[in-house]
TrEMBL record, chains A, B:
<dbReference type="InterPro" id="IPR006593">
    <property type="entry name" value="Cyt_b561/ferric_Rdtase_TM"/>
</dbReference>
<keyword id="KW-0812">Transmembrane</keyword>
<keyword id="KW-0408">Iron</keyword>
<dbReference type="InterPro" id="IPR043205">
    <property type="entry name" value="CYB561/CYBRD1-like"/>
</dbReference>
<protein>
    <recommendedName>
        <fullName>Transmembrane ascorbate-dependent reductase CYB561</fullName>
    </recommendedName>
</protein>
<keyword id="KW-0249">Electron transport</keyword>
<feature type="transmembrane region" description="Helical">
    <location>
        <begin position="160"/>
        <end position="179"/>
    </location>
</feature>
<keyword id="KW-1278">Translocase</keyword>
<keyword id="KW-0349">Heme</keyword>
<feature type="transmembrane region" description="Helical">
    <location>
        <begin position="87"/>
        <end position="106"/>
    </location>
</feature>
<feature type="transmembrane region" description="Helical">
    <location>
        <begin position="126"/>
        <end position="148"/>
    </location>
</feature>
<comment type="function">
    <text>Transmembrane reductase that uses ascorbate as an electron donor in the cytoplasm and transfers electrons across membranes to reduce monodehydro-L-ascorbate radical in the lumen of secretory vesicles. It is therefore involved the regeneration and homeostasis within secretory vesicles of ascorbate which in turn provides reducing equivalents needed to support the activity of intravesicular enzymes.</text>
</comment>
<dbReference type="GO" id="GO:0016491">
    <property type="term" value="F:oxidoreductase activity"/>
</dbReference>
<feature type="transmembrane region" description="Helical">
    <location>
        <begin position="199"/>
        <end position="219"/>
    </location>
</feature>
<keyword id="KW-1133">Transmembrane helix</keyword>
<dbReference type="GO" id="GO:0046872">
    <property type="term" value="F:metal ion binding"/>
</dbReference>
<keyword id="KW-0479">Metal-binding</keyword>
Amino acid sequence: MEGRATASTPAALPYYVAFSQLLGLTLVAMTGAWLGLYRGGIAWESNLQFNVHPLCMAIGLIFLQGDALLVYRVFRNEAKRTTKVLHGLLHVFALIIALVGLVAVFDYHRKKGYADLYSLHSWCGILVFVLYFVQWLVGFSFFLFPGASFSLRSRYRASHVFFGATIFLLSVGTALLGLKEALLFKLGAKYSLFEPEGVLANVLGLLLACFGGVVLYILTRPDWKRPSQAEEQALSMDFKTLTEGDSPSSQ
Amino acid sequence: MEGRATASTPAALPYYVAFSQLLGLTLVAMTGAWLGLYRGGIAWESNLQFNVHPLCMAIGLIFLQGDALLVYRVFRNEAKRTTKVLHGLLHVFALIIALVGLVAVFDYHRKKGYADLYSLHSWCGILVFVLYFVQWLVGFSFFLFPGASFSLRSRYRASHVFFGATIFLLSVGTALLGLKEALLFKLGAKYSLFEPEGVLANVLGLLLACFGGVVLYILTRPDWKRPSQAEEQALSMDFKTLTEGDSPSSQ
């Protein structure tokens, strides 16, 4: 770890990351406030079990998933493997919390005798969850499991990044649909009277969209990408020559 | 136009573009089918005026906006200016059709005495429309109006592309919210009985999300970007030397 040249952090990046965290924490807090103020709070063994669902999804599939995507932009000078493990672990936490949220809503529906999986929100939600799990498994097999060759990794990397961003955006869209569903089922025609709950939920919806937008911006700015470090480049060269069967070039 | 070396089109690109068009046309047709089969069709001077709104938005803010983004990937060997004008024109058509859709819903609300702009869908919709209009104006001033310098254009280009893609994705999200709203206001608890209208609208929602995903994929694949042509590179060099005040290098 010694003797590594530290790459400088782009000047504006920390402000954008801080802004994303402010948005993310505010949207989680606002989800909690919405459930506490207008939906009676949260509990597992009661009618309040449903409320576990939106809170878990806001924490897991929005905030933690978004933060997992930002790991490579934030930890620019750590060893690649450390950053990779953190990226994988944050996604595991997000998946587990989302699973709790999923169990909560299915269990609540079962106890109440409600139908499952009839709405667009639920279809998108199941799609997101399955895609997210598959993406994690494939990502783990390629990047953390030691078997995959360097050339296989670098060919898969672009798809991993694209699908990661797409699944995140689909998660944000699914959350917006769920929020709208919860609002319309309860408020109905009262929604048009600018009820405080409706206005608060609309603001929460805008926060969700903004968080998605800011994470996407940080992720896609080419000059904010994590630079390869000296020893990674050397290692990559070794891998490359090994996997492609060339003889190492003289240095 | 003579003597220009034509850049080869990546092998898979035409298939992806064809698939995006199939998705786009299917989603517009399915919106029409939904309104025709379950909402009584379309007319301006009656209760059916509302139905103008979803159809116009599906055509303008989803299909045409998506296609306008793909213009640079599809027309790879046309003169840059032709492609640019087509890009701008498709966005103008999209804006005009969206404006008709917007007038339809406000006029319908006024006649019925309904409140305006209370829902998350309407907030996101107004945001999309304003951002889209501003993006068009700024894009026109920088890229089609002859005043902007080469260096100003190239500095603004990345933001233009990012905001263009973001506004398109926000349009897709807003359409999903609107679809859900229209469904829940009419079906209410019947939505959970897997009514044919609900299932059709859910499939329409998935088509919307898929169209967004495929357009984003075509747009972001680095090796599918439109290559600069020989005379554009020469022109850029001239502009660059002119704007930066360097003397032209000898050739």
